[in-house]
Write a structure and sequence with these properties.
The protein has 187 residues and is mostly beta strands. It has strands spanning 21-28, 34-37, 44-52, 60-65, 72-80, 87-88, 92-95, 98-102, 110-116, 125-132, 139-147, 156-160, 175-182. It starts with 20 loop residues before the first strand and ends in a 5-residue tail after the last strand.
Length: 187
């Protein structure tokens, strides 16, 4: 006999795994304009890159994938938590990259960039990123973009400056790691 207010039987189901990120590759780059993660596995629907970038000669970085050098939509916002107003970068259509993550050479610059629909052969790809200059004014950036390609993402390149080819070199101690979330897991 069930006690009042208590269900005598219940049907519990196990939800899908959440936020199961697998480490795929790490790159520590010194004296190079770009770092490329290639041979990315095809069974991941989402990739993310976490790291810290140090630029020598430029304070921003950008990302591309699959060797694309055109066809990106990109925009970036940047500002300061120290009281300055936030500014929006000019959106660009048919850009050569998605840019605006922080890579100031003198500060610790945490970077987090996520690539969605990575293994889809039906939909385009979207990218979001956040980064910061850990300096006195706590400057930050937020970038987003997309590409209409229906090819799965098999490589990701991070470059310095306003060019997908890179400007100044990445400097020590730049480190980026790429992680993936497999099919069957939910974000």
């Amino acid at each position: 006999m069930p006690i009042l207010g208590v269900i005598a039987s219940s049907r519990l189901t196990t939800p899908p795994a959440v936020a199961a990120w697998d480490h795929i590759q790490t790159a520590t780059t010194i004296n190079a304009k770009t770092v490329t993660f290639s041979g990315l596995p095809s069974d991941y629907h989402t990739f993310k890159i976490i790291g810290a970038g140090y630029g020598s000669g430029d304070s921003i970085g950008n990302t591309t994938f699959n060797g694309q050098s055109t066809g990106f939509y990109e925009n970036g916002n940047y500002g300061s938590a120290g009281g300055n107003a936030s500014f929006a970068g000019s959106p660009a259509i048919n850009a050569t990259q998605i840019r605006r993550f922080a890579v100031n050479g003198s500060d610790n610059n945490p970077v987090w960039i996520t690539y969605f629909n990575a293994n889809s052969t039906v939909t385009g790809k979207t990218v979001q990123g956040v980064s910061a200059y850990e300096n006195a004014t706590m400057d930050f950036t937020w970038q987003y973009g997309a590409h209409g390609t229906t090819s799965r993402i098999s490589s990701i390149t991070l470059s310095t400056g306003n060019s997908y080819l890179g400007a100044g070199n990445w400097a020590s101690p730049t480190t980026f790691s790429v992680y993936g979330m497999k099919e069957g897991t939910a974000i």
